Amino acid sequence: MPYDLIIFDLDGTLADSFAFFVRVHNRLADRHGFRRLSPEEIETLRGHSAREVMRHVGLPRWKLPWVAHSFVRMMREADIPLFTDVDWMLQHLQRSGATLALVSSNAADNCRRILGDAHWQRLAHVECGASIFGKRRRIARVLRATGVDPSRAIYIGDQSTDAEAARGTGVAFGAVAWGYATRVSLERLKPTHLFDAVEDLAGLTA
After folding, report:
1. Using one digit for the tens of pLDDT, what is the confidence trace for 134-149?
2. DSSP β-bridge partners for residue 174
3. Is the CB of residue 170 less than 8 Å from the CB of residue 144?
4. Of 112, 138, 93, 91, whose CA–CA distance to 10 is shortest?
5. Angle between helix 160-169 and 135-146 (nearest 10)
6. CB contact set of 191 (below 8 Å; sequence gap of 6+)
7. Percent of all residues in the chain with a pLDDT value above 90, rounded to a whole number
8. Could you read off the pLDDT of 16-74 as tens digits, one per residue?
9. Angle at CA 190, nearest 5°, toward 159 and 9?
10. Residue 29 in contact with residue 22, Cβ under 8 Å?
11. Percentage of residues in the chain with pLDDT exceeding 70?
């Protein structure tokens, strides 16, 4: 069904930041006292939930805000590209009459720099700096700000925490198979939609 409101995650959904995450993981581990990972482990852990990954590396939840803060600061110096066809897709959705929004755990300045001013202006509402476990509340804010009924909205993301947040607010969940999690792990979440290519998102307003 067509959606009136399409809410996007940023990292792994619109922005191709996984390679950056891999590069800085061990630096973050050394700084904050959790376990380093080999490249082979990182690939395997893409099939696990955020909570499982945190247990694997020995990262307690109370440390997560400090780790996220360091990650965001490191990203301010990185060149993070958008995925191929994101420019065209966002333009198409806006021209089709959809209301676009963003809910991200990344900082607002990073989000705006990565998206660029033109795409930033396409967003009717933005909620940045959310905990990866706190997106439910942020999606609820978007719904209130836009006045869209949850049944007419969808959250597009790439991880299990995105699925939990969408379902917790009564909106559909659209999983993208090009982000941080594997396609197989996303299938287990039973998303409303599972997208294999950015261009497929254009069908959300068809």
Report:
1. 899 999 999 999 999 9
2. 156, 193
3. no
4. 112
5. 40
6. 163, 173, 174, 175
7. 76
8. 999 998 889 999 999 999 999 988 888 888 888 888 988 998 999 899 889 988 988 89
9. 30
10. no
11. 99
Considering only CA atoms, give the Rg of the chain.
16
Q: Across-strand partners of 99?
A: 5
| Burial annotation 116-134 (CB, 10 A radius, 16+ → b, else e) | eeebeebbbbbbbbbebee
For 4, the token pair is 């009136």
- Copy the structure tokens of residue 172: 């559909």
Question: Yes or no: is domain 5-16+80-205 CATH 3.40.50.1000?
Answer: yes
For residues 109 and 107, what is the distance between their CA atoms, to the nearest angstrom?
6
Tell me the C-alpha distance between 154 and 193, whole Å. 10
The 3-state DSSP class for residue 26 equals helix
Which range among 34-43, 91-100, 101-110 shows the weakest confidence by mean pLDDT? 34-43
Q: Please give the pLDDT value at position 77.
A: 86
- Which of 198, 138, 195, 196 lies closest to 162, judged by CA? 138
As given in the structure block, the two tokens for residue 135 are: 């997106």
Count of Cβ atoms closer than 10 Å to residue 39 Cβ: 9
CA separation for the pair 102, 8 (Å, rounded): 5
